[in-house]
Amino acid sequence: MRKRELDKFKKLLVLEQQKILQHLSSLEGASESELSQTNTGDPVDLASVEINQASIQKLGNREKKLLSKIQYALEKIENGEYGTCESCGEQISAGRLEARPVAQYCIDCKTEMEQNERRYTDDDGKEDEDWPNDDYDDAS
Ligand SMILES: [Zn+2]
Description:
Layout: H1 3-28, H2 32-36, H3 53-56, H4 61-79, H5 94-99, H6 107-117, H7 127-130
Bound molecules: zinc ion (ZN).
Zinc ion binds at residues 85, 87-88, 90, 105-106, 108-109.
């Protein structure tokens, strides 16, 4: 994947991470200044923000899960593994990643897994419900 594309996905991930962290800070009643310290300049800096694990317990399961997926995806960007299906090793289509930047599998593997794992309550089967359908208009 080209650096430019990676940067785009990184930005999407970080934006979402930022939203969750802001929600977290409001749950904690923390002062905004705490978060804004990490929010000066390039929002990508937030990728390295340290997240207090104890605080995270205050988030709902959905947000916790999404947050860990975002962190995981960001790590993969750093490792140069982002955008590759963890099952078959093929490239995940850009369209899928745009809709679901935390996707770990290509649509073929994902579909197959959902069929195989439907009887389990394994959370990954519901991956597609995790990512909020906010408008990211800059995708066009
Ligand atoms: Zn695959």
